[in-house]
Amino acid sequence: MQLPAELEDAASVRRLEIMTRRIVNDVMAGEYHSVFRGQGMDFSEVREYQPGDDIRTIDWNVTARTGVPHIKRYVEERELTVIFVVDVSGSTLFGSVARRKRPLAALVTAVLGFSAIRNNDRVGLMLFSDHVEKFIRPRKGRKHGMRVITDLIHEPVGRGTNIVEALDTLNRLQRRRAVVFLLSDFQQDDIHNALSVTSRRHDLIAISITDPRELTVPNVGLIDLEDAETGETLLVDTSSSRVRRRIEHALGKRRDHVRRMLRSLKIDHIDLRTDRDFDKPLIDFFERRTARASHG
Prior knowledge:
By secondary structure, this protein is α/β, with parallel strands linked by helices. The protein has helices at residues 10-19, 21-27, 29-36, 60-66, 101-118, 142-150, 163-173, 192-201, 241-264, 279-295; strands at residues 41-48, 70-76, 81-87, 122-128, 132-139, 179-184, 203-210, 222-226, 233-237, 268-273.
């Protein structure tokens, strides 16, 4: 799917909505809600106990007051709360191809956001760098949903990454269980506990975004490598195969660590690259979740 490389203004958001209508309406519409339904249960009523009812649902207060066994009935919560937690740190501006990491995160958020809007779900947004830059509380309605997606066009103040603070803030502000999409390049260590706590409170899905130059280092001679988050520079001789292998090994170790950590915490993971289309990985994710639910 050929989409604009960046979300630059409100007009580009409207164009994106039109361009993504096929994937949202035809491909993801049915799978989206079936995958995430049943996130919670809403109280419905109290009624008299009937043979065959689950005794664990007995309302003992009403039973004691009336002298007749009563149970609490619940119905599946149909409306979802979907929150996008999006990394806008300095490293997400890196890109060696037409699309950089931050615009790709914005585009994926937009596609998933349009799916949530179409299903009349509550949609919220958190943007973070080394601190929480913006938090929009979840609400329903197309107007609110479009505001969330338009606010992805944001110039951050911070350059670093603080996933821990972002998730801690989310857990403090969002008490009710939600579907949480965390979009980041995961350039931070010691995030295991924060991910673990959040995955217990919410349905957490991690979306990692990688540039091809974070997989292989080209032979381009002497270059200055700048850390996008600290501003520090390092002169590197990429003509040395030994140097290239060391850099690639270090980058590979970080990616493998993130994958193993997410797998150990049973957090769903969508792995995206800036040089590839993102619609297939998203569809594959929904198909995996659907298959797992049907066997569970």
